[in-house]
Design goal:
There is one protein chain. The chain is an alpha/beta fold. It folds into two domains: about 5-25 and about 105-165, no CATH class; about 25-90, no CATH class. It is built from five helices and seven strands, in the order H-E-E-H-E-H-E-H-E-H-E-E. A four-stranded mixed sheet has the order 1-5-6-7, with helices on one face. Helix 3 (about 75-85) links the parallel strand 3 (about 65) and strand 4. Helix 4 (about 100-110) runs parallel beside helix 5.
Length: about 170
């Protein structure tokens, strides 16, 4: 009987897992509709007073996505004002959905990623994750790794989808 050989572990294939870049921390969706008059009208004086009465420390070391779930038209300065209040406490603030927040976090992490370890090598971008990895993170990772890798695949070593091969 011949010995079972794990060819995947012996290959030069490098697995890149986006979960490794996931920044730990609390995510908070901050809906400002409750701070508006009848959830639709922003009255500057009342809005500013409401912001002054908030306990901003509750957002300490959190990642915050700002939005408004009502059909109100929110001026840009309102989000800027909320961000100024969150600034000393939150790690990151974005206007948009939770997915927009995750995309911004991954974009920051990928911009600082040293891709020299992938130089001239076959790379597989791991597809399954237990953490919320937005689709945009896969796009950003593919673009960054493709610039230096010999080839880029997606999935798992046993069942990958080829994306790019350098000629």
């Amino acid at each position: 009987m011949s010995e079972i050989v794990n060819r995947v572990s012996q290959s030069k294939l490098i697995t890149f897992d986006l979960e490794d870049l996931y920044p730990e921390g609390k995510r908070i969706v901050l809906d400002i509709k409750d701070w508006l008059y009848e959830e639709i009208i922003l009255k500057e004086k009342e809005f500013r007073a409401f912001l002054e009465d908030q306990d901003w420390q509750q957002y300490q070391d959190s990642y915050v996505s700002l939005g408004c779930s009502s059909n109100a038209i929110i001026p840009g300065w309102a989000y800027m004002l909320v961000t100024a209040k969150l600034g000393p406490f939150a790690k990151k603030v974005v206007v948009g959905s939770l997915e927009d927040l995750e995309t911004a976090l991954y974009q920051s992490a990928l911009e600082n990623l040293d891709v020299s370890v992938f130089e001239g090598k076959p790379v597989i971008i791991k597809g399954c994750s237990n953490k919320p990895v937005p689709q945009n993170a896969y796009i950003l990772a593919t673009t960054k790794i493709q610039a230096v890798a010999k080839s880029v695949m997606y999935g798992e070593a046993c069942s990958s989808v080829p994306l790019f091969k350098r000629k």
